[in-house]
Amino acid sequence: MTNAVPPREQRIPVPEPDLTRDMLIDRARALRDRIREEQDSSEKRGCHSPELEQEFVKAGFYRILQPRMFGGYEFDYVTFYRVMLEICRGNPGTGWCVTLGASHAPVVAALWPEEAQAEIFPADGHFVAPHRAGIPVPVKKVDGGYLVEGVWGYASGCPYSTHFIGTAVVENPGDGPESITFIVPRDRYDILDDWGGDNVLGMRASGSNSVRVQETVVPEHHVIPSAPGLWSAADISNGTYGTRLHGNPMYLARLMGPYHCSLVVPAIGAARAAIDEMEGIARARKTRFPPVTAWYENSDVQRNFGQAIMLTDAAEAMLIRASEMYMEKCQRWAEDGTDFSVEESARMWGMLQYAGNMACDAVDTMFRAASSSAARTGQKMERYYRDAAMYRSHTSSQIPTFAGGIGRLAFGLKMDMFGV
Q: Is 166 in contact with 181 (CB distance < 8 Å)?
């Protein structure tokens, strides 16, 4: 038995047909110093500069996971997160913004019907969209679709977006509330000036502004149920819109793992960046007491430095392995129809939570080892510490909360989270 489907025709050409995975990673690595040079201004602005954004667009970073039919390169999640890791190493906040703006093209490709995809993906193939889940903004069912209006906070990746994806609740008399996910183009929402500067502790460059959707009727075919499809519990025996339309099992939409990968990669980027910063400090500083030597020759400095490297190497290996696992399980489904279960998807998320926390531990280790002089406002180490704190406080990174759901699934019970 096989679920493989041949892909359809390409409707929007890609800018560089011969672009390779390694070329993308090299481009991201080459931009690291420039991203770091903009750290201060990006924090004040709330996102990276328009000039840097043009470099990201030109490099093809937003098209990595986008289907070829609609102008994307349709590579894999491993390539995507390797590229995003290089950006996050330059500035975790910038990486958060780009990752969350670029990671939702495959979600649209997987879950929206062909008619909607043809309307949603722009004619030039450039698509950037944040997704704000978990906000129960009430909307109304009307003739032709849904009447949507409201404010969605923390829409990470919105400053340079072409679209916005939001979750809302429809009150159905007699049937109870229904959670939906909709998508609207850029001319239907405003981006509020409530991010950057001192508005938040960390990830100040992440472009996590609030979005206000103007009163608009969203066509019914631009709206999907929020659960169970978004959270890995939909019936995939016949695939998804994406697997049938694009012939790629990557669009199977078992999204718990990929969704959390996008939050973990900035934490790992912060750890790599903190290690880079610590190396510079250690090579430039001398010990205070005799015998006076280079700081990096001190055994305590070496021990902390080595521990941070070990933690970060392990976290990165888990991120990449989770990305590989996702692709492997999707391919397994395509080859023999084996289900990609909710438990498998949730356990991938749980594995990634530990990767994120190990990366934050590495940042903590470097922050403490660098001494209080590195904690002054504007110091890179101070910034990475604040950025890592934002990952730790995120709802989806709370291991004790999530562990119960995984335990329930392992006992054959429902997760009781995300409607699954």
A: yes
